[in-house]
């Protein structure tokens, strides 16, 4: 651990250190990078020999031996993804009409393959996610889909993969309705419909605290506070923004409240404003997460996309220490987003023991009416809800991904991260903002972008 890392973590309590290990490791990778990227890569190369052999084969087949950006992409893939790229017949098109580089095409092709192995980014009810989690077949669907609310909830809360479903259903039917809990209401209602209404009407635990991250103009947090007040909840709403108060006042004239500003949701264990809140959150919200736009690059480009994937992984790891067992996390995003892809959300949750319980269409969600924003400097002059739309995204494709914190009690290993590009890799990029620059100007741009990434990993918002 470097001296700077020791300073960062000095005030972090021992039981919270796992919550920030990943973000500090990411910062260290960028901090240790040097202009001699080739030497640094040779020193720290941990790609297994079989991966290296397959990578060299692909780069040779695609005539990309000297493409450092392609090397960065392939080194970040799992072995079965490299195999797929090899046997699928895929070959990057150097004259792609969408002006995507060969490396960008390979990264996207691998991502689409990876997502075909998931349930997809569209609507999913609680039974489909339950069956997927436990690898149950169609027979389970037939047994569970017609159950009453009380019985279905009992089965889903008590099933551990060892019981016979028929026995657990019989036990559920003998059990009394839950008393004194919101989940106990309407015990005889159709099970799937009732559980779906819980997630759409935001019937969260009344006494638990709720946290909102990344709410630039605070309109969502205000809606949530009003909603909880109307329901008689006594748990508080902890509203946060990533920007400073001065920036918010400049961008959002409607900004009205003093809340926790400059909060990086991946580093809350290091923030004194969250001290004492461990285990208190029964609900957490993060609407349309984004790591910040980088001028000249599309969000999916491999030189910047690693930030979006790491954002979700580190977000869920940071939350573990602050969630109540059984607490809900809701992340709204577009199922077709190429920045924070739906698989980054569901994958980051799964890695950190947050069970995927349902995917609800955003427009069916009781809290969907709020002032949408970009969350960056574009908001000073325009908003998505003022005849502005997100590129290639439609409102009917917006989803709310719902997760339940279900820790196993086991110690998790270090959080996996997507490695950032080295400075040398940035210097050899030929598209995006690097398309028309060369020589010293290109080196200066690469260094500037590398320094920006380092600031972002230190919790500074520069987008």
TrEMBL record:
Chain ranges passing through the membrane: none
Region (Disordered): 27-48
Classification via Pfam families: BMT5-like
InterPro entries from the UniProt entry: BMT5-like
GO function term, MF aspect, one: rRNA (uridine-N3-)-methyltransferase activity
Annotated GO biological process: rRNA base methylation
Domain 25S rRNA (uridine-N(3))-methyltransferase BMT5-like: 214-370
Biased composition regions of type Basic and acidic residues, renumbered to the chain: 36-48
Domain of life: Eukaryota
UniProt-recorded name of the protein: 25S rRNA (uridine-N(3))-methyltransferase BMT5-like domain-containing protein
Source species: Effrenium voratum
Organism lineage string: Eukaryota, Sar, Alveolata, Dinophyceae, Suessiales
